[in-house]
Structure to design on (88 residues):
C-alpha cells in the first residue's frame, strides 16, 4: 500500500483502539498520546509508553509496516512486538 492509498486521519481512531485493546490485555501501565495535525507537513504520530519504555510510531513507520503486513491489526501487532518485549 502506498501512503496515497490510505487516509491516515480516517485510521487514527482505529489505531488508537487497537493499541488500547492490545495493551489492556497485558494488564500493565501504559499511555498513548496521538499527535494529530491538519498541516500535511506535520504528520500524525503516536507516542506509546509502557512502564519505562517509550517509542513514537510515525505515519512513515506505520506505512512501512503496512507494506509488509497489509492489514492494520497485523501491522500494529508486529510493530509492538518489534519495539516492546511485553509482546513477544
Amino acid at each position: 500500500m502506498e501512503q496515497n492509498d490510505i487516509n491516515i486521519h480516517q485510521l487514527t481512531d482505529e489505531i488508537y483502539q487497537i493499541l488500547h485493546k492490545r495493551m489492556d490485555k497485558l494488564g500493565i501501565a501504559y499511555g498513548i498520546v496521538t499527535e494529530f495535525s491538519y498541516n500535511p507537513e506535520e504528520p500524525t504520530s503516536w507516542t506509546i509508553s509502557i512502564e519505562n519504555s517509550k517509542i513514537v510510531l510515525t505515519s512513515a513507520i506505520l506505512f512501512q509496516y503496512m507494506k509488509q503486513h497489509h492489514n492494520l491489526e497485523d501491522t500494529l501487532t508486529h510493530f509492538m512486538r518489534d519495539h516492546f518485549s511485553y509482546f513477544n
Summary: Confidence is low (pLDDT under 50) at residues 1-5.
